[in-house]
Inverse folding.
């Protein structure tokens, strides 16, 4: 679930001007502000967000796939070994 949350943040925050352009580090060091407002940098950060989302959904799919046999056996009335 952590990867999904980080992925969503990295996907959305670079394009949200209130957060991305107006922060302490951008005001403290002006060359960083020019780098952060570059659309290629924003796209790269959003790309990392997509990678994190894919990893998070893959982990969740593995987790849910591993839980299915236990739920099926409990639903049928079978006892756990």
């Amino acid at each position: 679930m952590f990867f999904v949350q980080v992925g969503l943040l990295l996907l959305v925050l670079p394009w949200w001007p209130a957060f991305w352009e107006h922060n302490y580090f951008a005001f403290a060091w002006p060359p960083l502000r020019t780098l952060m407002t570059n659309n290629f940098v924003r796209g790269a950060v959003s790309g990392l967000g997509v990678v994190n989302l894919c990893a998070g959904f893959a982990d969740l799919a593995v987790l849910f796939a591993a839980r299915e046999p236990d739920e099926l056996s409990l639903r049928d009335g079978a006892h756990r070994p």
User: Anything to note?
Assistant: The chain has five helices and no strands. The radius of gyration is 20 Å.
